[in-house]
Structure formats: structure tokens, C-alpha cells
């Protein structure tokens, strides 16, 4: 059995994040193709609001955390025997939470930079 070091773990994490982003882009392409079938007169789209996008992302992370907790509890009760599915749910929730923390850290750093600017 080989030893796992932090660099290989980070490489695996980045590969998973890249695959996840590619899957999300592929899933969004059919939804983007649907407006072609609509009539030529289309209602103008409103620009995405940052607060709503951030709220949706946080609620998605919360849903992933709740689902991972439910699957873990189900495994602990013996209702589920698929440990791989349990670990996958927990890892997805963990990655989502870590990404949310990174976004929060970047927002705080940007806020501090703006507040320290001379007027």
C-alpha cells in the first residue's frame, strides 16, 4: 500500500473539481438550447444578482451537508450498506463547504482591501 502525501491529495481534489465543473457545464448546455425553440420575441433577461447567487450557493451547500448527514445516519443505523456512496456524499459536502469558506475568505480580504484604501 502506497503512502498518500498532501500534494497528491491536492491534485486529486483539483481533478475532481475540474470534472465537476465540466459536468455542470455539460448539464447546462441543453437548458441553453431550449430558448431557440421559443418565438423570436423574447423577454430581456435580468442580470444575475450577486446576493441571490451567493444565497443559492449557500443553500446548495446546506442541502449537500444535510444529505450527507442523512446518508451517514442511515449507514450508522444499518439501513444502507454502500459505504462508497456514503463517503462520496460526505466528500462532496466537504468540498462544497471548503469552497464556500474560500469564497468567504476572498470576500473578506477584498473588503479589508477596500476599507484600507485612502479616500
Give the integer mean of the pLDDT values: 82
End-to-end C-alpha gap:
59 Å
Binned strand content: under 5%
What pattern of helices and strands is seen along the backbone? HHH
Main sheet specs: none
* Structural class label: mainly alpha
Q: Catalogue the unreliable spans.
A: none
- Approximate helicity band: over 70%
Oligomer: single chain
Number of helices: 3
What are its keywords?
extended; mainly alpha; 75% helix; 3 helices
Which helices and strands appear, and what pairs or packs with what?
Layout: H1 6-33, H2 50-77, H3 83-115
What does this structure look like?
Keywords: Bacterial flagellum, Cell projection, Cilium, Flagellum. With 119 residues, the protein is mostly helical. It has a domain at 54-119. The chain is built from three helices and no strands. The chain is extended, with a radius of gyration of 20 Å.
Give a nutshell description of this structure:
By secondary structure, the protein is mostly helical. 75% of the residues lie in helices and 0% in strands.
Amino acid at each position: 500500500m502506497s503512502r498518500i502525501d498532501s500534494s497528491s491529495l491536492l491534485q486529486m481534489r483539483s481533478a475532481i473539481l475540474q470534472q465537476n465543473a465540466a459536468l455542470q457545464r455539460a448539464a447546462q448546455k441543453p437548458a441553453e438550447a431550449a430558448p431557440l425553440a421559443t418565438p423570436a420575441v423574447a423577454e430581456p433577461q435580468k442580470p444575475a444578482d450577486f446576493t441571490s447567487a451567493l444565497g443559492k450557493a449557500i443553500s446548495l451547500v446546506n442541502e449537500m451537508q444535510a444529505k450527507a448527514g442523512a446518508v451517514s445516519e442511515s449507514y450508522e443505523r444499518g439501513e444502507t450498506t454502500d459505504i462508497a456512496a456514503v463517503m462520496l456524499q460526505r466528500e462532496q459536502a466537504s468540498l462544497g463547504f471548503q469552497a464556500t469558506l474560500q469564497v468567504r475568505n476572498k470576500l473578506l480580504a477584498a473588503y479589508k482591501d477596500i476599507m484600507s484604501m485612502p479616500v
